[in-house]
Amino acid sequence: MNSRSSGVMAQRRLLTIMTAAIVAVGAGGIALGATAITTAGNTINGCYNPNTGALTIITPNHTRCTSTQNPISWNKTGPQGPPGPATTSYFTGGEQAGSLGTATIVASLRLPAGSFVYNSSVNFVNSTTSSDNVTCTLTDAGGTVIDTAQSTVPASFNLAIPLAGASNAPAGTVTVSCQDIANSASAYVDGASLAATSTAKLPTATAILRIGSVTGRPAAVNDTLGLAYAPPECTSGSETAKVTANPKGPGTATVSITSISLSGCSVGGISASITAVGLPWTVNIGDVNGNLSSTTGTVGFKVTAVLIACTFSATSLKGYWSNSVNGIVVPSQNFSLTSGGGSCPSTFAVHGNLAPVKDTSVSGSPLVFVS
Q: Is the pTM of the predicted complex or chain greater than 0.70?
């Protein structure tokens, strides 16, 4: 065999070896051609070049680091870390339920005492020829409303209604209940899911009012806030509030509601207007992790119609801040009659969204977020 043909064959053998090596690396990500030397405890030793970042494994063919390399080892067992919090998850599914003219439980879950994070989804089907308003509420075993969702469901439409939140509650049953306006067998809940996961403790409440986004600057104390609260029974509403405290670090904001006026309302089939009494109301803003937003002190509403005026009050008005509506979601709460005589109903239900909240002291009246 002449030298030319020997050279060609050598090149072909080299090409074959290189091709096999490339295939091996491409198929497995990285292929090491020699077995690493390990010491007691399966520690792997190597050499690291700080200038190029190249790493060489100590093997029978490479037993020591050069003068330009630093020795390195890994796969050492570190100290035992603390155990993570134990969690337990619970889950249930709800059944079909229709004719929801009154609040009806569509899913329930028995839980031990403790702190839980809840998630639920209600599938509401409206097979009627008109839109329907439905309100679903998640309530913990202690009777605290965790979340509420008010939705308008178009005719011939299915809607998934999410509910979520967290609480520390005694042993008992957490429930999801729904109520709609249609009160028809053709408008119904077609199944609901309810899950609860135990947690060591609830997230600490941090509720800072921020301008324009969850990362925006904090709203200034004494800024005026505009709200657009109009429950389904009313056609319009006008509300104002003022920021009274807003921490720049951990903590919770407070606002003072200075006016609430609702018009075009239908109360018991009677046209009426509604105004807040006992103002200003101080509201402690809850965070977005399920911690409650609530007023302090007695609050009330005056319902005025032709030849009648009824005043209702409660020890507080409670709700949950939601950045999806930029305000406080208020689940249905009953206020008791305090004046007005026998022509007035004994209770008055208050619900809806105190939203969206805007900072009208800032140019453009940007939306307010909580983070």
A: no
